[in-house]
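Entry: DsbA family protein
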Amino acid sequence: MTQTVTLHYLFDPLCGWCYGASETIVTLANHPDIDLQPWATGLFAGNGARPMKSFAALSGRQFTEAYRRDVLGADDTSLDSTMATLAVTAAADTVPDCVIEALTAIQTARYVDGKDVTSSSVVAGLLTELGLAEAASRILTPDAALTGLAQTCSAKARDLMTSHNLQGVPALIAEVDGTQFGLDASKLYSGPDAILATLGRA
């Protein structure tokens, strides 16, 4: 019987490079020998938020005209993942198996549909469409428990990054027999086979 490998995936919902890796991440999440553990780092949340005008992301994924017009082209849009981070946290706290699905919906809404995923109503609507009604309601009225949980999870994610000398997201940390080691996250853009080969699961 093949041993399951735990794969810690560190990301920010509004990271363009993370969106570029999203198809590979979905495949890895569905692999029978991979236990994918998603960690939102909060890189662009709270004090990490910044104006969009200074931001551009290039990866293997296509960025639509709606994204360029309604997100990159909007004068008042900020790179603020606070609401999206709360959304994936709420999803993880209510239906853990749907975190990657929620993340993918948020990324698609932003990069394909050009929607403002800094808006609580927009993000709550996405969660509702996925059938995550409880998570959606928590996003509309985030309480101290949800905010605190998001901060705790982000702190743990950053500790993981620091302990493995990883810079930025996306980042991958594999765990086998209690031993953790960082992976070359650039392989995410070559498809899942490169990561699976590194883990001996190709």
